Amino acid sequence: MAIPRRRHQHHHSRVRFLFPAIFAVSAIILFLFLFLSILAPSPNDDYHLRHLRRDDSSGGKGGGNEIKVPSSRVKVSAGVHNRDLWSSKNSKFFYGCSNASSKFAKAKTITHPNRYLLIVTSGGLNQQRTGITDAVVAARILNATLVVPKLDKTSFWKDSSDFSDIFDVDWFIKHLTTDVTIIKDLPLRRGQLWTPHRMRVPRKCSDRCYINRVLPVLMKRHAVQISKFDYRLANKLDTDLQKLRCRVNYHALKFADPILKMGEKLVQRMRMSSKHYIALHLRFEPDMLAFSGCYYGGGDKERTELGKIRRRWKTLHNSNPEKARRQGRCPLTPEEVGLMLRALGYGEDVHIYVASGEVYGGEETLAPLKALFPNFYSKDTIASKEELEPFSTYSSRMAALDFIVCDESDVFVTNNNGNMAKILAGRRRYFGHKPTIRPNAKKLNRVFLNRNNMTTEEFSSRVHTFQRGFMGDPKEVRPGRGEFHENPSTCICEDAEAEKEMDWDHRKSGKDNVAKKKDGDDRKKDIEAVVHDENVDYEPEMTDPEDEEEDEDNPLGEVSLGSSKAEALSNGTSTDYDSSMSEDTELDELLSD
């Protein structure tokens, strides 16, 4: 009996030590679980910054349908990359050059009498600016006298301003005297007012298109008015015509004195508070969001409100928010813009001027951006109501004030690729490649979605990588790519003597030049890949809902005159025109269009 008793005692001893061991292991597991829970990010951080997607289990009904942008918990730093925040690398080696060549004849020698071109612009301030610029070039192509363009007064923007209310008309005429003859009004005909023939041309109409389509009508009617004149001239023209575009856009179009003086006051006030400032064209208004077809987490209320606005554009298809965001066609939220800038190295002490209309979601939407950049200004905060009163009821004049402050800023940030963004990007390239940041929304979307799974340094590094080619540096966009107004490569010259001094990212010196050549080549490929990813080719342009026409390559049917005959017509030297084209048939058919 002794043996069974010993076995029982041995078993009891093993059980007695087993319970403390189990307890110890359990305590360790519990401790590890608590430790990991502390390190793990809050679920509230994953609010789709991204899509600002919230729990839609309620169907978006009831309270809380306003856009809500919680404060981000992502830490931001002064940046991890060694770059000058306030200037573009190698910009000192590039300069704007738009002088005419010796072969470009003076206007008085090529302008034909009794040829008058009138145009009516379309859209808001910057869309009209492109129309005015192209109208001067069109008049030059036609060897015609240009009547000072009429501004759009009937479209969505509803602005009654005349040309002279926005621009210095006398400067405009005088500065272009040697290039194109410009007059303020159509002269009397036999002592009486006369009505010009009205017609339209397709978008991206080439110089040959104008000679074939407009010139025959102009020769018969003597005065032609082209309506809805926006982007009615081809992007690619010969060098002298492109340089004329630059002389008009960057030198002849000067704002009227009242606008210029008020704009300068705003710039001075921004400079008084800080040596440098960023200008942000936020473009987060309801119409822009509706046009983009994107969704920002506001439930049924947002879908209803933006859907109603979107229906103004009858040609827009049903939106696919997920696809639009993947393709980079959704404007960043104000917080996303702020996070991008902080990742690029701009600290919370930086002063920001925001050019924007009514922000969808109001102050609640702006709150996260203001938290990231407390020094937050707009024309309404740095100017009194009395100062803005002469401009406040005119959308184009208010837009002109924002244009001036953005143009003079040390860094310009655009949140879309609309007309103002394109015009300012081209202008800032021409005048010294001042930093112009356009978010690479297609790539940044992925970074914002996954930012809580990466460190601060990783987040900043990713933003830097994907923003290469989107910062306004020289040669980041290939010549001829995008709209000419955005990338006026023909008008930007390079200091050839300084080529060897340029500090490109992949260029090293001394022993590092050999050791890091491969890394430099890989980096260059990475930059080229990102630049190739630019979304300028498929991002739609927001247009006036009342101006929806179907612009085909040649919707009216182009009259072909042959290259030699077209050139003769343009120069006014054709002697057999009447025998080659009957005025009673083909011309009348053109006029009926």
Automatic annotation (TrEMBL):
Residues 501-535 have a biased composition (Basic and acidic residues). It holds the Pfam family O-FucT. One of its GO terms (molecular function) is glycosyltransferase activity. GO terms for biological process: fucose metabolic process. Keywords: Carbohydrate metabolism, Fucose metabolism, Glycosyltransferase, Membrane, Transferase, Transmembrane, Transmembrane helix. Residues 501-593 are annotated as: Disordered. Residues 570-580 have a biased composition (Polar residues). Residues 536-555, 581-593 have a biased composition (Acidic residues). The keyword Oxidoreductase does not apply. The chain crosses the membrane at residues 21-40. Belongs to the glycosyltransferase GT106 family. This is O-fucosyltransferase family protein.
